[in-house]
Design a protein that fits this description.
single chain; 187 residues; mainly beta; Lipocalin; 9 strands
Length: 187
């Protein structure tokens, strides 16, 4: 019913021409994955970021690195019964695979505030390449902490059946649409 792809990704341009290491703000960073349900609706699940980091040199984005883990066992579908159902063996099998992970392999700046992040998504024990289209929302000192911070949004799509999540295809769409929101701070 839902998938994830990370889900996940992060980085942006900082104010310094040096590599900075950022940690994800778990409160302000989320991954939302949606599938079409019988043609009636697009059902969405929220995945919480368990751990995430990125390193970035604002003068050379090609060296940026993203590594993020998602809490698949903590999937939020808005219903405890359905959460239990998709956590079972024929779905996410969270007893064995409680997390998903995305690790970047290439980052390409495509515009002033846009980039493509290619990486490996591991979900339910399978690792496949995924490409994220990302937009830098803002980079600069965080207004509260005064530490360097970045925020960005990203999207991707993938086929859940490729990760062994083919239950109810095609009634529930094979294609998963993923929206990622990230806020991260250095230091």
């Amino acid at each position: 019913r839902t998938l994830i792809a990370l889900a996940s990704l992060a980085f942006a341009a900082g104010a310094h021409a040096e590599t900075l290491n950022y940690s994800f703000d778990k409160v302000h960073s989320q991954v939302h994955a949606s599938v079409n349900h019988l043609g009636f609706s697009n059902s969405t699940a929220r995945f919480h970021i368990k751990d995430g980091s990125l390193s970035l040199d604002a003068s050379d984005w090609s060296g940026a690195k993203v590594d993020v883990s998602l809490d698949v066992a903590g999937i939020d579908l808005g219903d405890a019964t359905w959460r239990e159902h998709v956590s079972a063996e024929k779905w996410f099998n969270t007893a064995i695979y409680p997390e998903a992970r995305f690790v970047s392999t290439q980052v390409v700046k495509t515009g002033e505030k846009t980039l493509t992040i290619t990486g490996d998504l591991t979900l339910k024990g399978k690792t496949l390449p995924v490409t994220l289209e990302a937009t830098l929302n803002q980079a600069g000192p965080h207004p509260f902490s005064k530490k360097p911070a970045v925020g960005f949004s990203a999207t991707t799509r993938f086929k859940r059946s490729e990760f062994g999540l083919a239950e109810y295809v095609p009634a529930v769409s094979d294609e998963v649409s993923v929206r990622i929101e990230v806020e991260a701070s250095a230091g």
